[in-house]
Each structure stands twice: as C-alpha cells, then as structure tokens.
TrEMBL record:
Binding positions ([4Fe-4S] cluster 1): 184, 187, 190, 244
Compartments in which it is found: Cytoplasm
Species of provenance: Gangjinia marincola
Domain 4Fe-4S ferredoxin-type: 172-204
Homology family: Belongs to the QueG family.
Name this polypeptide is given: Epoxyqueuosine reductase
Class of enzymatic activity (EC top level): oxidoreductase
Known pathway: tRNA modification; tRNA-queuosine biosynthesis
Biological role: Catalyzes the conversion of epoxyqueuosine (oQ) to queuosine (Q), which is a hypermodified base found in the wobble positions of tRNA(Asp), tRNA(Asn), tRNA(His) and tRNA(Tyr).
Keyword set, alphabetical order: 4Fe-4S, Cobalamin, Cobalt, Cytoplasm, Iron, Iron-sulfur, Metal-binding, Oxidoreductase, Queuosine biosynthesis, tRNA processing
Length: 307
C-alpha cells in the first residue's frame, strides 16, 4: 500500500511542479546499454567529448551514485516554443531559446525532493539534470516515458520529443512502470533529413558528424569539408526532431523561463553577423548558448556566412 501511495504522491507533485510526465524504474545495472555504450565509445563516436569516457561504471549503475538506491524517478519537461525564429535567420536549437534548463529543472527537482522529505520522510537521494554520468534516455525508456527513436532521442506518441529529461535517484522503493514499444516502424525521416548524415544507422548517432557537436562541443576550427552542410544552424540542430512525424503532437510549453528574448526571434542573418559582445550578453544572459561563449558563436556565424 505504502509503495503505491508514495508513487502516486510523487507523480502528482511532479505534475503540479510543471513536469509533463513522470515514470519510475528499479535502480540497477543497465545490462542492455552497457555493450552499446562500450561499442559507441570504442568507435570514437563521441569525438572530443572525453567526459563520456569517465565513470563508465557509474554511468551504467545508479547504485554507485546513490548508496542503497532503489528507484530512478524520470521526469520530462516540455520546451517546445510557441514562437520560432524568423525564416531568414541563423538558427538556434529550440531547447536554448530561454533560461538555461539546468537552472530551471534543478529548482523543480529540489522542490520535489523537499516534498518527498516532508510527505514521506527520511529519503536519501540525488537530483540529476544532464550534468552527471546518468544515462537519462535509457532511464526514461525503462520508466515507460517513451521509446528510443532512430535519431537516438526519446519519443512519446502523446508529445513527440521536444522535452528535457531529468532524474531523482532515491533509496525509496516505489511502484515501477513498464517500457513502451517502439513506434518508429519503417520510418527513416530523421536519417534521410540529417544534413551531415550523422545518424549512421538507426539508433546510432556519430558525434563527429553532428551539427550540435560541431557548434557546441567542438572547440577547434569547424572542418571545411562540412561547409555548406550546416543548414544555417549556429547553435545546436533540430532537424531530426523537426522532421519526425510524432512531433506534430508537440504543444507549446507553459514555462515562462523558457520564453526567448524578443531579439532572438526577430534577428536576421545580417544582424547575427554584426552581433556584438554586449548584445550577445543581453540576448543570452542566462541561456545555454553561453556554453559556446561569444567567440564560439561568432565562429559558427562566420562559418555559415562563408557558405
């Protein structure tokens, strides 16, 4: 009785805090993901993201992150915007339109942990938002929140894929959800549309070819061999999600902190080319775009304007 009641309490509070979905899975070693992750790393498909090699054992086993962990609570937060950038513009991935999601989601997760302590009692655990060795997508899939699409993002029949994934790993036993079936079928829209052919086979993305990797993670000069293939993306890339049929079910988020600075929506290519450091700081004050810094964004814009 307690297990079911605790699970209902947590899911109801997650919904109240604005999360679109909440699912729970049993904490333990990710047996299916281990060989896949190892093969992906051995094939060097993570490019310069050397942090992906770190903490291999922790990445696959949440009980090594939280002593006595029993449950992984996975949560989805919608970021699909109501308004998008103008057509003749250099593009920014929709997840980076507003305030950096790490800050927004961390606050919500801490509130959820406070609620658990107040309503359930002494529960030990940690909150995670894409900044620790946790395989977010694997846990979201195990928790029944969606299936892994051929573009390697989690997909839901109800809401598509424009959402963030976060977790609580806690030492509390809960009722566990079941994974859902794969509904990609014979569709290859994402594979066919990728401007740089980064989806080398269904469910496998080669980071070395991905526009998001180039424009955010790569610190070197952008490779000239890819000139003309970036489809005007200056930070991140949404092509594989934009063409996915399931994303016709995406609905605008209701999180004011994810609303973009007005200039982000109105700037033309010419205005982006003339971007100053002051305007960069204004538009991206608390944005994830700061990750690439002003010089990084200018590098990306210069690369696109040479095309």
């Amino acid at each position: 009785m307690n297990t079911a009641h605790h699970t209902q309490l947590i899911k109801a509070e997650a919904k109240r805090l604005g999360f679109m979905s909440c699912g729970v899975s049993k904490a333990g070693f990710l047996e299916e993901e281990a060989p896949r992750l190892e093969a992906w790393l051995n094939a060097q498909k993570h490019g310069q993201m050397s942090y992906m090699e770190n903490h291999f054992d922790k990445r696959l086993d949440p009980t090594k992150l939280v002593d006595g962990a029993k449950s992984v609570v996975s949560l989805l937060l919608n970021y699909y915007p109501e308004e998008k950038q103008r057509e003749d513009s250099y593009k920014i991935s929709k997840y980076a339109y507003g305030t950096d999601y790490h800050f927004v989601i961390k606050d919500k997760l801490r509130n959820l942990m406070d609620f658990i302590h107040a309503e359930i009692g002494e529960v030990d655990g940690r909150v995670f938002v894409d900044s620790a060795p946790v395989m977010d997508k694997a846990w979201a899939a195990k928790s029944g929140l969606g299936w892994m699409g051929k573009h390697s993002n989690i997909l839901s029949k109800q809401v598509g894929s424009f959402f963030f994934i976060a977790e609580l790993i806690i030492d509390l036993e809960l009722e566990y959800d079941q994974p859902v079936t794969d509904h990609c079928g014979s569709c290859t829209a994402c594979i066919d549309a990728c401007p740089t052919q980064a989806i080398t086979e269904p469910y496998v993305v080669d980071g070395n070819k991905c526009i998001s990797y180039f424009t955010i993670e790569l610190k070197d000069q952008l490779p000239g061999s890819y000139a003309g293939q970036f489809d005007d993306w200056m930070f991140g890339c949404d092509v594989c999600q934009d063409v996915c049929p399931w994303n016709r079910f995406s609905k605008p988020h209701r999180e004011p902190l994810f609303d973009p600075h007005p200039l982000l929506l109105t700037f033309s290519k010419k205005e982006w080319q003339e971007l100053t450091k002051e305007v960069f700081q204004e538009i991206f004050k608390k944005s994830a775009v700061k990750r690439t810094k002003f010089d990084g964004l200018k590098r990306n814009i210069a690369f696109l304007s040479e095309e």
